[in-house]
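#lab-general

N.A. 3:47 PM
ok so I finally got the sequence cleaned up, no stray characters, all 150 residues accounted for. can someone with queue access submit it? mine expired

B.Y. 3:52 PM
send it over

N.A. 3:53 PM
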Amino acid sequence: MPTPYESAQLILKLYELRREPVMRDARNWFMREFHPDTIADVQATLAGPHNPHLRMVIGYWDMACSFVVHGALDRQMFLDANTEVFGIFSKVHPLLAEIRAMAPQPGFAKNIEEVVMSVPGVEERMERLRARFRAMYAAASAAPAVAAAS
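B.Y. 4:20 PM
back already:
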């Protein structure tokens, strides 16, 4: 098990990687514009220009969670410092079985799943996040129509 100092150093390194401009763009797209309701939404994303964004975000968080799964990073410290992983996973969780069935990698997001799903009450937490994302997306989608009507 890593020392608290070692875990803190790795968490800071992960934070630096999240701030890299291309990764930041991918994360912004994922949180603001990626709202999959069906497997067709995921397939359309994978076939389109945002394929790298989707793969980068899921790949990053799966890598980070693999550090927890394999004992290189303290689980609780990771969860305390990285709440974004819940929002990311909440978007793909309802479609996870279908994504894995169609993906050439049946272990898609398996480390994220292991870490996130180990948290008590996480199903309810993710449902609250999905509801919040739907409301934010609906408000953002309606804003241009409201502004044009004024």
